[in-house]
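name: query_chain
kind: protein
chains: 1
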Amino acid sequence: MCDSNRYEECKKYISDQIRQQIDLSREVEDAEIQELIDDLVVRIGRKYALSLAQRQELAKSVFHSIRKMDVLQELVDCDEVTEIMVNGTENIFVEKAGCIYKWDKRFETKEKLENVIQQIVAKCNRVVNEASPIADARLENGSRVNIVLSPVALNGPIITIRRFPDHPISMEDLICFGSITREASGFLEQLVIAGYNIFISGGTGSGKTTFLNALSHDIPKTERIITIEDSAELQLQDIPNLVRLETRNANMDGAREITIRDLIRAALRMRPDRIIIGEVRGSEAIDMLQALNTGHDGSLSTGHANSSTDMLTRLETMVLMGMDLPLAAVRRQIASGVDIIVHLGRLRDKSRHVLEIVEIVGCEKNEIITAPLYQFRETGEENGRVMGAFVKVGELTHTEKLCSAGVVVPHRGAG
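structure:
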């Protein structure tokens, strides 16, 4: 049974037998499928003298191929995996602890890979095919999925899965990981409670969504929160009055596309206290700024950028994609709407850190004025690990919201 060809033959035989025995005229429960698989594995096991471990592995593999995501299910269930990258049938790569490895398993056929793709998008009411070859979706566990098919993808169907932790990472966890100090965490907690509008920036994989989830824990439980996302992946905890909105693509049945911009406009009519936009990446930036400037204090969002300064420039560009406005007016809108930028990054040792907390002070002479409050300062390297300190470098200028909320920033030593 050590022969991989023999293993695949057994797996294919059992899978074919199960599919022939399934009554497609009714809904078949997982338990019934598992029972059929177990019976066939026992028979195959006797024939080839398989050990108990080999039988269990074969049964699990067959069940995954019929009911789950085939060879990917093992990776989706693994807590250590943060990213799964499928480059056609032959090459599957995984990210663990910030490092990428090639996996030793593969899809048997292109058809099996395509079946997994259709299974993923069908559960999210999305469509992906040659006519519409790019789609975003999510798995049942909240993992984010991006799919690209031919003719756009030249080396076969491509799947990229961002796997989030089964249990949301808290701010206390981030402190333990060394991503932020206790002092800075306490400072941000007070800003969230007081209703400062906070924008989280960073590169791909820097932990923006994780950080947004952690920050949201400090939102008062009495408030009504509306989240808006392309593909729902936020894991907000302990918010009773929570409304979750997700975009929709147009389909062949005549359903029109519903964009982030549509959802922001709808959210404004739903009596939100705060609006949380998973990621701003286009013309919806103008709608977000209008929401921030019309009484929805304490709203949160994220965006891709290499620095806090770069994030401001990108916001300007995205606003201009949605509306033809003078640049000076755009900058005044940004300076009025965004209070704080928290910039995240991954260092060369793959660790994730809050690199900077910046206050938007105002707009003078058509330029946005910023002031750094906290910065990560590298002090060296030890055993391949980047060492440094996240230090306070400035005081908050605009304390009006803190005063209005009756909040006092605690003066605690960095932890």
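note: The two ends are 54 Å apart (CA to CA).
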